[in-house]
Amino acid sequence: MTAADRPSDTRAFVAxxxxxxxxxxxxxxxxxxxxxxxxxxxxxxxRACAVLLPADTREVAAVVRLAREYxxxxxxxxxxxxxxxxATPDASGAQAVISxxxxxxxxxxxxxxxxxTVEAGVVLxxxxxxxxxxxxxxxxSLAAEGSxxxxxxxxxxxxxxxxxxxxxxxxxxxxLEVVTPQGEIWDGLRALRKDNTGYDLRDLFIGAEGTLGxxxxxxxxxxxxxxxxxxALAGLASPHAALDFLSMAQRHAGxxxxxxxxxxxxxxxxxxxxxxxxxxxxxxxxxxTVLLELSDSxxxxxxxxxxxxxxxxxxxxxxVADAVVAENLSQSRAFWDxxxxxxxxxxxxGLNIKQDISVPISSIGRFIEETDALIARAxxxxxxxxxxxxxxxxxxxxxxxxxxxDPKRFLDEYQARINTLVYEQVHxxxxxxxxxxGLGQLKVNEAMHYKSPVEVRLMQTIKAALDPDNLMNPGKxxxxxxxxxxxxxxxxxHTEESAP
Length: 500
Hints:
- This protein is α+β, with helices and mostly antiparallel strands.
- The protein folds into 4 domains: 3-99, Uridine Diphospho-n-acetylenolpyruvylglucosamine Reductase, domain 2; 106-224, Uridine Diphospho-n-acetylenolpyruvylglucosamine Reductase, domain 3 (2-Layer Sandwich); 228-342, Alpha-Beta Plaits (2-Layer Sandwich), CATH 3.30.70.2190; 344-428, 2-Layer Sandwich (Alpha-Beta Plaits), CATH 3.30.70.
- Helices cover 35% and strands 19% of the residues.
- The chain is built from 16 helices and 19 strands.
- Strands 12, 13, 14, 15, 16, 17, 18 and 19 form an 8-stranded antiparallel beta sheet that branches. Strands 5-6-10-8-9 form a 5-stranded antiparallel beta sheet. The protein has a 4-stranded mixed beta sheet with strand order 1-2-4-3.
- The protein is globular.
- Residues 482-500 have low confidence and may be disordered.
């Protein structure tokens, strides 16, 4: 009998982990394990033979070797703020959750090299604060930054509001430390911007959601802290106008343009309905609002002068109908609060259908118009909550039930139909059905439906080569075999999403 054929022995595994980690760091009591067994949106609720809390990379490696010996699958978990169920175990009770939250040291800050070396369990906001203390910027920024961890950000290749200027988490990472499925430690913590010595192993693990190995530490890029930030809101007539405004802003500001967020009129009205202290910023309503931000290394005066030239031209050409510029940090924060409260307002309004999609930036206007029209015909009265990172083509394209219609009944009747419609539109525009939230267990089958057989086989080949026993977060990102007859729209409910 080979190792792969042996049945799992969870009892012996848990006992061995107690010896390796100490009994206090092997949780089995239902009260203690509960916070680790449900995803943030509570769409998935799993069971586990134990929740393991290693203190360092060597202990992670020891756990992985024990998992291999006793044939127990591991589900890596960071801050448990994911939106696709990627860090939640299945319902069998045979898997173990391995939480990285005790790997929480900042190992090094190299100001001259503009890098910071951090362990996987360091909370994103702590990295931002440490960078700021060194007069540097760590550019990744998410709504969950007070609780999400850098290991989870890397595992899902998180996006956020700074992608337009700084890129996704992948672009912010120079090197990794990883525990392989064999329990070996790969030290790839190279703080190099140029390293042309073979396959880029780092990029295999980023975005793999723990299915190929467990990220335990990373070297992340820092940038010089901007001297000034200037934030504004602009009212526009359509997403097409927003695209014209984006091109104009990029021409005027270049790399100084660090934020460009699109928000539909109904999105902002929904915020006002449920958070009345957040006032609509304009005297008259506009079909679309853009939140844009410049980060300047010269001075606030320089940034404001550039802003004034941009807005003057945009208003003269009729691209922008109205604009308001933040006068201070408090007002800037209020503008961003409007954007970040859209998902919270949706949750207050009731269950809704959510999409995290991307299309080429040039296609956004056509995608919104075409898909809105299709949904209006398929589900009359449905209310569209469209917002997202226009500068990188990522839309949170969400559908709220018609006014006065029970949200659950609406989801039961229309969700599968709307999912299929949206995914087909995304595919027609050569986009992606998951832009920044990952696949987890939520969209695995649907993603495989839209990938070519060649691409699916390549993904399965990589998984089988690195994790032949399929013990690293099985069932996530790539299935062992594609279900026959699968059609899009068959995943669990797309509801209760946090602010992206």
